[in-house]
Amino acid sequence: MTENKSLLARIFLMAGALVFFITEFITAAAWSHPAYSYTYDFISNLGVRGPSTLFGQYMISPLSWVMNTGFITFGWLIFVGIVLLPKKQLHLRWLVIALAAVLAVGGVLVGVFHGSGEALANGTGAYHSMGAFLAFISGNVLFGVLGLAKVNLPVDTRTRTILKSLSVIGLLCTVLYVTTLVCSSDNHPIIIIGLIERGAVYPMLASSLYLGWRGLRSVA
């Protein structure tokens, strides 16, 4: 039974990250006028059907529903994977589950409330922003906590080090992302704002993928 749960945990953790990466790639590939930029454009732009403009960025995403499906789905897949983690001697279990739940809720808010100019005007953009930052922070803290020795997750030292390192990178990029937005003049963010935002998101996805692919193999 423990081995089956460990295998399911690995599958869900990997699926959560892969759903995000794949839906992002498909949606970005469908955006051609002009081509979507992973470096400059916000991730949220992919979820806006458009046409719309916000923070000086033009948004028109033909497959916005694909990205929004990814936003809504990825966090819940990771949440299920976290719930299925080996429970034997897993301390701080409820903190880990709570962080995963916040990540899942954040993803839903991002997918349901879009980051468009119209959303900013009608007030629903606030829910989108709240969801994004809930996901950024809870996701990176989640995997940082899983990397702590006192959590006693049955993984090797290398996995703990990777999880903690990626957590620090994600949280630092989150701070840099907020700072960049606040300091941007005339609502025109710097040309690498999309890259900075991905620096906040990708580490937690990489952690989920790595933990599922390799980190839990020793207990499967």
Automatic annotation (TrEMBL):
Keywords annotated in UniProt: Membrane, Transmembrane, Transmembrane helix
Highest taxon, organism lineage: Bacteria
Signal peptide span: none
Pfam families the record matches: DUF998
Transmembrane segments: 7-31, 65-85, 92-114, 126-149, 161-178, 190-213
InterPro entries: DUF998
Transmembrane helix keyword on record: yes
Record carries keyword Acetylation: no
The protein, known as: DUF998 domain-containing protein
Organism: Furfurilactobacillus siliginis
